Recover the amino acids of this structure.
């Protein structure tokens, strides 16, 4: 009895001692409880300590600032939905304060946003002065490429869009005769045949780098003969390659929306088209009955993650810090990448909200990031070539879907050598 009383007194004193009269700030509840959530769930998210959105524009880098504005405008939570499908307001409205018309004249106001503009390499300067423009005229079109292939069986399983340049006649011809043949192409392992369509994506011959022979007439001839050239009215330079993506997505949506898969790559790679068809044919998701569906987040290639911009001013890929800050999102190397046409439609839509970036494969990674799509790595994409000792052995190509880089002559040899069955490997 006494001991109980003693314990009671001690506890009372202890409680009294630990009591502090100063008013403490009311602590935030440990968990934020969303309306409608069951309160006895142990898995509630913790209360955010700071605002979880970024109110400040990224300091310095021009691309990041422009993109920040676009991301905010395109934020479906913050955006006023009453105006419906409003397109992106142009960055010139916010950055320049003019009427915002996306005229394609070089815009020197951009340079004023870059303190080191005058010391930048030429290609960066050219890019900055025209990065607000993406509506270039189509000079050579192939409007009938997918005409009459509207039924399920006839629609191209694979649509190959190959980045080329006016002068690369030999590459294009070798591709036509080998892995880029248009028409019915047989799977490698199976017996089924599928429609394949090939086009070459070109800009205007870049004549700013010195005197060049005028090849336009020859190109006209080639185009009328093969009907596989798309040419737009912009200078075909390395830093303008992104334009080929965005303009091709526009073209595809109008002229070949029925295609199932897109290949986009360089004209100096080798593709085992039959093996690619085998692989793609397995990428349908079966629905009820016999209907099949292509996923709208399907993209495979040689995936590069955690890449940083090159800060070496003499490098081909040099991006100054005043233009872009931060790590690149995951992207598939531009030598060759395959994605579903359903994803191409989504890329086309989201690209309206992504500022042009001078490196085309990084730009696609930026678009994918905003769609919440992760590119998948496929070990068959050898954009850095096979080990040198194996390059001449046909058997080494058994697991290859794409390999970089091969000259037109090598394409022809390889194609012939790989015709023989690889079963003996
Ligand atoms: C927003 O707009 C779209 C397209 O007009 C509409 O389908 C959707 O229901 C709207 N959402 C809200 C929350 O009002
Ligand atoms: C792009 O569109 C703008 C606005 O409509 C126009 O002023 C400009 O001339 C167009 N550029 C090209 C190359 O067609
Ligand atoms: C891209 O093409 C446009 C139109 O021809 C040109 O004005 C611009 O300088 C080019 N950009 C680069 C980086 O070459």
């Amino acid at each position: 009895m006494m001991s109980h009383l003693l314990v009671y007194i001690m506890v009372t004193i202890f409680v009294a001692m630990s009591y502090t009269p100063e008013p403490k700030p009311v602590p935030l509840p440990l968990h934020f409880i969303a309306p409608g959530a069951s309160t006895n769930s142990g898995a509630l998210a913790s209360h955010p300590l700071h605002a979880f959105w970024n109110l400040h524009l990224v300091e310095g880098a021009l691309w990041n600032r422009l993109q920040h504005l676009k991301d905010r405008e395109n934020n479906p939570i913050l955006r006023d939905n009453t105006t419906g499908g409003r397109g992106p307001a142009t960055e010139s409205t916010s950055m320049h304060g003019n009427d915002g018309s996306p005229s394609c004249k070089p815009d020197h106001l951009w340079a004023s946003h870059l303190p080191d503009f005058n010391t930048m390499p030429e290609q960066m300067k050219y890019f900055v002065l025209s990065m607000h423009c993406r509506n270039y005229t189509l000079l050579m079109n192939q409007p009938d490429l997918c005409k009459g292939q509207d039924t399920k069986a006839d629609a191209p399983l694979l649509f190959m869009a190959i980045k080329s340049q006016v002068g690369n006649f030999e590459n294009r011809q070798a591709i036509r005769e080998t892995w880029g043949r248009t028409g019915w192409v047989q799977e490698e392992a199976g017996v089924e045949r599928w429609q394949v369509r090939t086009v070459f994506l070109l800009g205007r011959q870049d004549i700013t780098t010195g005197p060049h022979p005028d090849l336009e007439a020859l190109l006209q001839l080639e185009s009328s003969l093969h009907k596989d050239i798309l040419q737009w009215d912009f200078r075909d330079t390395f830093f303008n390659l992104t334009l080929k993506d965005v303009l091709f997505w526009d073209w595809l949506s109008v002229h070949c929306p029925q295609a199932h898969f897109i290949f986009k790559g360089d004209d100096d790679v080798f593709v085992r088209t039959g093996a690619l068809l085998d692989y793609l044919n397995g990428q349908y998701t079966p629905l009820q009955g016999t209907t099949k569906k292509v996923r709208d987040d399907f993209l495979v290639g040689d995936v590069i993650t955690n890449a940083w911009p090159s800060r070496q001013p003499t490098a081909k890929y040099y991006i100054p810090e005043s233009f872009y800050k931060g790590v690149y999102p995951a992207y598939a190397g531009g030598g060759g990448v395959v994605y579903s046409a359903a994803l191409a439609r989504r890329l086309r839509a989201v690209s309206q909200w992504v500022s042009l970036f001078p490196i085309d494969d990084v730009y696609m990674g930026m678009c994918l990031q905003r769609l919440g799509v992760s590119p998948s790595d496929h070990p068959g994409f050898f954009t850095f070539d096979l080990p040198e000792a194996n390059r001449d052995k046909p058997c080494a190509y058994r697991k290859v879907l794409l390999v970089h880089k091969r000259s037109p002559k090598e394409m022809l040899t390889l194609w012939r050598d790989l015709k023989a069955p690889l079963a003996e490997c």
